[in-house]
Every structure is written in structure tokens, then in C-alpha cells.
Amino acid sequence: MLRVVNASRGTVLADRAAWARSFGARLKGLLGRSGLAPGEGLLIEPCSSIHMFFMRFAIDAVFLDADRRVVRLFQRLPPWSATPRVGGARSVLELPAGAGEASGTLPGDLLRVEEA
Question: What is the value of pTM for the model shown?
Fold first, then answer.
């Protein structure tokens, strides 16, 4: 499990995030889940775009560069949608819808990922 903290704002984005680094884990993502509870998330690496095909719920998608700086944030991304390729993105943190706004996260913020 991972804990993801917005070091720029002193807020926690997720305290129970999984890390999808293998091809299979990245391919599956959040498929088959009925939602994300507050505090849950999925860090997909490497990743520069995502799709929401076959998903059942909306999420926030926080795209990060190699230094874990927020490049772009998609809030409340609905099922059956997709993001464009995000230039400079190395990973994406998928969170419950509204988590980005609740944490005050904005492009340029630096995130810290800690293994629990």
C-alpha cells in the first residue's frame, strides 16, 4: 500500500493506494470495481493517458511528471470517457471523484509517494 501526500499543500490524497507497475496491473486498472472509498487510489506507472471504458463510476485523474509534480488534473472523469495524452506525464494517480478538489491539489503541486 501507498500513501500519497501533496507536499506543496500538506494534504493527503490517498492513504491506501495500490501501485500498478506491471503490464497486467496497468491494463486492468480499476476495471471490475464498483467504486473507490475515501482514501483509496491507484498509481499507474508508466502512464500518460487513461480511458474509462467499462468503468462504473467517476474518478479524479492526477497526471504526474517524473518528479511527481502535477502536470494536469481531470476532475470527476465520467465512465465511458477518455483523456488525451498528457505531455510530460509519467504516471497517473486515480482517486475517488472529488478527492483532488478536497485536497486543494493543482497543477504544479509536488506529490510525495510513501510505501506503507
Answer: 0.96
